[in-house]
Every structure is written in structure tokens, then in C-alpha cells.
């Protein structure tokens, strides 16, 4: 009997709803099939985003700041909708169905974008210079473009919050071998999706600029369709975790019960608080946010209203209360990582626009402006490789730990991004000085005689920062969240990306309005050669430094969740 039980995974089932047999379900092969979806999602989303600003300015003839905001709003919406995907996965569909449904939605969106960019009627007449003869895209043309972009955003948001969670579902945390495999899954996960990004900013961007955007977007749609078929092929091999209900409802129930009993006093002994969770699944009581403990006070009549248990809106167990506390403790770390993604947004908007004005030739070959982000992706891959092969072994030898903690990784990412913006400001000062010395009337279509490779340091610093902060955030939000709220927690993590892009749009709008109040072109002029983008980068460096100080305070305050140790003999 014991031997038979050891062959099954306690909290997972197979596609028939039976206890999952660890010998023929889960593991690296099913996890790899799931990674295919994420690789193609990144190929599509980043392939569109990194070169969209050049399409909006060069083809749709929109102003520089407007183009940048459209890109950041699109990316922000992608990640904001991860909350919707997480809610649907936890409450109704499950992660498997959520991934399948929203991957199809994204396939439809990229197919629509391929069609739109192929039709001359859906873009304004071409022109070579940005002058009074250049007509901007009309309302209808913009509306159709928005429809395709936000269909893609819906698909991306819906599937992205579930992919990493469904991938970790394929490993059993109670098995030491599989637990170690899951730890490496986080790094491998980010490495492989970075491969998707690398393909996007090289091959896909080149096809967009040199062959045609409709073909490039068609490739995105076809690759996602193939990835869906590969994903579905693993249906019988996957492990499925049972849903414990909507985590949002659980959170509101705890808050409602605590408010209802706000005038009651907590007992002197915490053992008097209500608890109905099996001993092996209980979460130990903590002192932070102790006002929520009132939700677990047993009031008169709480246990007598019905035979099925107490009303969850009036009485919650200590474990349920602690789950809400765990989510609450994540919020300060969540808030202080948003500014990194505001910095990241510049790498696919203004930095690409900078590249479009600089000398991008290597012999007879001209590098597409959007492909400069290859240095950004290269920095991610190099950083992950160095960390995996050099830093982790040395850290293990010195400190006896397998690597930096998730909070340390996030701190390193914030430091590197702040340095990246400081360097970007200095490089832009140099670019502007050259532009002005050559011709004070240089237009946005003319190249400044300065090498585009001067942008490499800012791409490399922010890219290395992303390697640390993305893996740190993913690890932190998944491992420090309650078991039943991991999909929602992943969605919460991805909203930092969303809000970072929205903050970027907000900053661009505010800076443009404030700096053009006296009738000048301001920091973010339509022609960046007449603006002061260096000042904008400097502002982001200052904001990044202030945010880093606040983050360090929040990280020192944070108390990590420590699982209850297993008793001898319990598997």
C-alpha cells in the first residue's frame, strides 16, 4: 500500500481525474511542451512591440511621444490582463484550458495584424519626410490597428499568468529530486523565453523591415498555432492541480469577516482562534497584520448556523487568514519593482527611436533599428549563463547557498537599471551634441553621424538587470504565495510589468506637457534631435535611485514564509 501511494502525487490528478502517477505524468518533458507556448508568445509580443514604434512613426506618421505611448499602453495592457487570466484559471477554467483558449485568441490577433498591414487602405499615403504633406493615420485606421493589438494583448494576458504555474505543476515539491528540478525550471524558463525574444528582435524584425510586416506577423500566427498543437499533444502527460476556488473571493471573505468583528478583542491565546485546516496543510500564525486575525474569532452562533460549516463571510480559519497575510506582505515588494519596468519600456520605445537616427551600417548591411534590442537580449542570456555556471557555484562554496535569494536578485536588477538610465542620459547628451554640430535643422529621417553601438551599454545594463529581476520576481511571487493563490500571485507579479509601462506613458505625457508649456518643443519633441531625451533619462535614473532606497527598506521589513516542517514519517 505504501509503495503504491509513493507512486502518486498527492495534490495532482491526471487527465482522467485520477491521482497522478509520477512515473508517467509530469517532469521535464511535459514542462518543455508548455514552454513552447511561452516561447511563441514572446516571439509574437516582443516581435511586434520592439519594432512597433517605427511602424507608427514611419508608416502611420504619428508623433514620437504618441507612438511611444501606444507601444507602452499595448504592453501594459498585455500584462494587466494577466490578472484576468489568473482569475479565470483559478476560479473556472483551470490552467490547462486557460492556456489553450487564450493562445488561440492571440493567434487570431496576430493573424488580424498580418492582414491589416497588408492592406494599403488601412494606412495613410507614404511620404519621405515628416512635413505638412504627411497625413497621419485617420481614426478608422487607428481603430482597426488597436483592435488587432488589443486582441493580441487579451491572448497574451490570458495565457501568460498560467504558463509558469502550469509548468511548476509538473514537479512535486514533496519529492526532493523533483523539487530540485523545479528550482532549475525557473532559470530555464526565462532562458528559453529569452531565446524567443532573441529570434523576435533579429529574424522577425529583419523580415518586418526588409521583406514585409504582414509576412512577419503571419509567421507569428502560424508559430503559435503549431505551439498550440504541440501543447495539446501532451494532454495525457500533464499533471493537473485541483482548484481550491477563487482566491479573490477568499481574500474578500477574510477582510469582510475581520471588518464585521472589528470591535471584538483578540484572545490572549492564539490557539483559541478558529482552525479547521488539516494539520499537514496548516500555515503557522504570524503577528503581522494582526487586525485580520479577528476574522478567526469564534463569535456566538458562528458554528451553529448550518451543518456544512461556518459562514465563510463571518468566520475564517487561521490558515485562510495567514494566506491573506502572505499576499499582503508581497505588496510592498510588488510596488517597488514597478519602476524597473518603466525603465525597461524605454528600451523598446525611445532607445529604438535613438537607434533609427544613428549610423547602423556594418559594411553594406544596415542593422534594423528594432534589432538593436538584440544586445538587450544577449545581455540577459549572458547574465543567466554567468550566474548559472560561475556565480552560483562560487556563492555555494562561499556562503553554502545555491545562489542569491529572490530579494537579492531583485535588488541587483534595480541597481543595474538605475545605472543603465544614467549611462543612457550621458550617451544621449553625446548624440545630441553631434546632431547639433552637424546641422541644427536635422530631421528625424536623417541619420546622425555617430555609431549606434554607443547604445550598447544602456541595453546591456538594463538587460542584465532584467535577467536578475525577472527570475527574482518569478521565484519570489510563486514561492512566497499560498498554494491556492499561485496563479493569482503570478498575475500580480506580471502587473508590475503592466504598471511599469503605464507609468512610462504617464511620465511621457506629464513631461511633454510640462516641458512644452512655454511654447518650446520640450524634452520629448516630435523630432528627438530637437528635444532633450537625456533629461528624461536622467529623471528616470533619479526615480530609480529613490525607488531602490525604498525597496531596501521594504525588503528588510519583509518576513519570508517558512513552510511548516514535515514530521518524521510524513511524506
UniProtKB/TrEMBL annotation:
GO molecular function: transmembrane transporter activity
GO biological process, one term: oligopeptide transport
Taxonomy, superkingdom: Eukaryota
Family: Belongs to the major facilitator superfamily. Phosphate:H(+) symporter (TC 2.A.1.9) family. Belongs to the major facilitator superfamily. Proton-dependent oligopeptide transporter (POT/PTR) (TC 2.A.17) family.
Presence of the UniProt keyword Transmembrane in the record: yes
PANTHER family named among the record's database cross-references: OLIGOPEPTIDE TRANSPORTER-RELATED (PTHR11654)
One Gene Ontology CC term in the entry: membrane
Location of the protein in the cell: Membrane
Primary location: membrane
Protein name: Major facilitator superfamily (MFS) profile domain-containing protein
Amino acid at each position: 500500500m505504501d509503495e503504491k501511494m509513493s507512486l502518486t502525487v498527492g495534490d495532482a490528478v491526471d487527465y482522467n481525474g485520477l491521482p497522478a502517477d509520477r512515473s508517467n505524468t509530469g517532469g521535464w518533458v511535459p514542462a518543455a511542451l508548455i514552454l513552447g507556448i511561452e516561447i511563441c508568445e514572446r516571439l509574437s509580443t516582443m516581435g511586434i512591440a520592439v519594432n512597433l514604434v517605427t511602424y507608427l512613426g514611419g508608416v502611420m506618421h504619428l508623433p514620437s511621444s504618441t507612438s511611444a505611448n501606444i507601444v507602452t499602453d499595448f504592453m501594459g495592457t498585455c500584462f494587466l490582463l494577466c490578472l484576468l487570466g489568473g482569475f479565470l484559471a483559478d476560479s473556472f477554467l483551470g490552467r490547462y484550458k486557460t492556456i489553450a483558449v487564450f493562445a488561440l485568441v492571440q493567434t487570431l490577433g496576430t493573424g488580424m495584424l498580418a492582414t491589416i498591414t497588408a492592406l494599403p487602405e488601412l494606412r495613410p499615403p507614404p511620404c519621405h519626410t515628416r512635413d505638412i504633406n504627411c497625413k497621419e493615420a485617420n481614426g478608422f485606421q487607428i481603430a482597426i490597428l488597436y483592435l488587432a493589438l488589443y486582441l493580441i494583448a487579451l491572448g497574451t494576458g490570458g495565457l501568460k499568468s498560467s504558463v509558469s504555474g502550469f509548468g511548476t505543476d509538473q514537479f512535486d515539491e514533496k519529492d526532493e529530486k523533483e523539487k530540485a528540478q523545479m528550482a532549475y525550471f525557473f532559470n530555464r524558463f526565462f532562458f528559453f523565453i529569452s531565446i524567443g525574444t532573441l529570434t523576435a528582435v533579429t529574424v522577425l524584425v529583419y523580415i518586418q523591415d526588409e521583406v514585409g510586416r504582414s509576412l512577419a506577423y503571419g509567421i507569428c500566427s502560424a508559430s503559435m498555432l503549431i505551439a498550440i498543437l504541440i501543447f495539446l499533444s501532451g494532454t495525457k502527460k500533464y499533471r493537473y492541480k485541483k482548484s481550491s476556488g477563487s482566491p479573490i473571493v477568499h481574500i474578500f471573505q477574510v477582510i469582510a469577516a475581520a471588518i464585521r468583528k472589528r470591535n471584538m478583542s483578540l484572545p490572549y491565546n492564539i490557539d483559541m482562534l478558529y482552525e479547521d485546516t488539516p494539520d499537514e496543510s496548516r500555515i503557522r500564525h504570524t503577528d503581522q497584520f494582526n487586525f485580520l486575525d479577528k476574522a478567526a474569532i469564534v463569535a456566538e452562533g458562528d458554528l451553529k448556523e448550518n451543518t456544512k460549516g461556518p459562514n465563510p463571510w463571518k468566520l475564517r480559519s487561521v490558515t485562510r487568514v495567514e494566506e491573506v497575510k502572505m499576499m499582503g506582505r508581497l505588496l510592498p515588494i510588488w510596488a517597488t519593482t514597478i519602476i524597473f519596468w518603466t525603465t525597461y519600456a524605454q528600451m523598446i520605445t525611445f532607445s529604438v527611436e535613438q537607434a533609427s537616427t544613428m549610423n547602423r551600417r556594418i559594411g553594406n548591411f544596415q542593422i534594423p533599428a528594432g534589432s538593436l534590442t538584440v544586445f538587450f537580449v544577449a545581455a540577459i542570456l549572458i547574465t543567466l549563463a554567468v550566474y548559472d555556471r560561475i556565480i552560483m557555484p562560487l556563492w555555494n562554496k562561499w556562503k553554502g547557498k545555491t545562489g542569491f535569494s529572490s530579494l537579492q536578485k531583485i535588488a541587483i536588477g534595480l541597481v543595474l537599471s538605475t545605472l543603465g538610465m544614467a549611462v543612457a542620459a550621458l550617451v544621449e547628451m553625446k548624440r545630441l551634441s553631434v546632431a547639433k554640430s552637424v546641422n541644427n535643422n536635422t530631421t528625424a529621417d536623417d541619420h546622425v553621424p555617430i555609431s549606434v553601438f554607443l547604445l550598447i551599454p544602456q541595453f546591456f545594463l538594463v538587460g542584465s538587470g532584467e535577467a536578475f529581476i525577472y527570475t527574482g520576481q518569478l521565484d519570489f511571487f510563486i514561492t512566497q504565495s499560498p498554494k491556492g493563490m499561485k496563479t493569482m500571485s503570478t498575475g500580480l507579479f506580471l502587473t508590475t510589468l503592466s504598471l511599469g509601462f503605464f507609468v512610462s506613458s504617464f511620465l511621457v505625457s506629464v513631461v511633454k506637457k510640462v516641458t512644452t508649456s512655454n511654447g518650446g518643443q520640450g524634452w520629448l519633441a516630435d523630432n528627438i534631435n530637437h528635444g532633450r531625451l537625456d533629461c528624461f533619462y536622467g529623471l528616470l535614473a533619479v526615480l530609480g535611485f529613490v525607488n531602490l532606497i525604498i525597496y531596501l527598506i521594504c525588503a528588510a521589513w519583509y518576513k519570508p514564509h517558512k513552510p511548516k516542517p514535515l514530521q518524521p514519517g510524513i511524506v
